[in-house]
Amino acid sequence: MLLLLRISFLLVFIIVGPGWPQSPTPDPRADLDQSGRIDDRDLFIFHQFWFSLFPTVTPTEAGPSRTPTLTSTMTPTVTNSPTPTYSPTVSLTGRVFGIITDGASGEPVPFFQIFLDLPDPYPDRNGATNSQGFYEFINLPMDTQAVLNNISSVGYASFQIGILISANLERNIQLIPHTPTPTSTPTFTPQLYRGPSQYIHPDRTPTITSTPTITLTRTETSTPTPVNSRTPTRTATPTRTFTKAPPTVTPTATPVKLFNTSWSGTALIDGGVSNITLSNDEDLLPNQLRVVFRGTKIYVNTPVISGISFSFPGTSQQNGTGYIILNGTFSDGDHLSGAIQHRSAVSQPLSSGTFTVQRD
Fold first, then answer.
1. What is the DSSP letter of 29?
2. Quick one: what percent of the chain has pLDDT higher than 90?
3. Which pLDDT tens digit goes with each residue over 162-210?
């Protein structure tokens, strides 16, 4: 407010001060500068005196104070980056190959699964021989210790062979055959078929034993005679009844032929239903069987058939890591059912279930 008053007074002084008319009889008290006349200098002196009566208020500790203005200053923050470390580069040009043969016959072993265990951080490898018994692992770390093994196999003893990987390392392997431990064989109890609708499978030769049974029945007929008759007449007529017992059929189980056959069905395992097929393909031996489970798991082995019992020994997946066991019976020459055990990977436990297939 005080500032506005000062500005207003100065404006009036500038505009009208120089042209202010002089009083013909000036009051000597108005001549503040003692110049003998009243002019703008006297007005300026009065102005200074007038505003000296209103001193400027100086703020005290108890009065209002100015609020300091804070000015933010950007301070750069320096973050030290970690010093990069460099790992030595390992050349992945190693190769291991060879032929796997039967130690007894010297013949190559086709579709035999073999594993290569590598140290960390390299993943382990697995593979299988081709139809000529040849196996190969490529793109391996050079100058690295590794182990060739078969973990589990049917018909041969397991092995572990330590190697040092090089550019072209040839390692031929002779398998040692062994006789597998026999498992329990299901007992077949022949059924007795009665009546004209009896069914005998053409692959079974029945042995019929017929034993006739003779039953004697005696019928007596007594004819009374008059009281005065001295000689009573008594007639006895024996009647023979022949009852033929039904034949006893003792079937002789004949193994089902697998050559050039294919079977398909389902397996209930891991809480779900999966497709399963069995086939004797052209590239297999007459007594071998290929099992395809879940569309991707392929197993090749020679099943054991005794009568109507069926056993597909534990075998590893062809070109993979799975494992499967089948045991069952033929209800007739066209239907097979039983138990299945399956492992989807080497590190996984076996899961159990049931399967049912029929001849295509």
1. G
2. 33
3. 999 999 999 999 998 876 666 666 666 555 555 554 445 555 555 555 5
Pair 355, 276: CB distance under 8 Å: yes
State whether residue 329 is helix, strand or coil.
strand
Predicted pLDDT at 86: 47
User: How would residue 287 be classed by pLDDT, with cut points 50, 70 and 90?
Assistant: confident
Residue with tokens 């004949």: 254
SS3 45: helix
CB crowding 62-82: b at 16 or more within 10 Å, else e:
eeeeeeeeeeeeeeeeeeeee
Global confidence as pTM: 0.33
Pick left, alpha or beta for residue 295 (phi over 0 → left; psi -120 to 50 → alpha; otherwise beta): left
Residue 232: helix, strand or coil by DSSP? coil
Q: Pick the more confident residue, 176 or 25.
A: 176
What single letter denotes the amino acid at residue 182?
P
Other beta carbons within 10 angstroms of residue 184's beta carbon come to: 8
Cα→Cα distances 62→59, 153, 213, Å:
8, 99, 138
Helices 2-16 and 40-52, axial angle in degrees (round to 10): 170
Rg (C-alpha) for the chain, rounded Å, is 58
Using one digit for the tens of pLDDT, what is the confidence trace for 70-111? 555 555 565 565 555 545 678 899 999 999 999 999 999 999
Contacts of 356 (CB under 8 A, 6+ apart): 265, 266, 267, 335, 336, 337
Domains, the chain, ranges and CATH? 94-175 (2.60.40.1120), 262-359 (2.40.128.120)
Gap between the Cα atoms of 180 and 43, Å rounded: 134
How far lies 242's CA from each of 123, 175, 245, 296, in Å? Answer: 81, 68, 10, 65
Residue 113's identity, in one-letter code, is Q
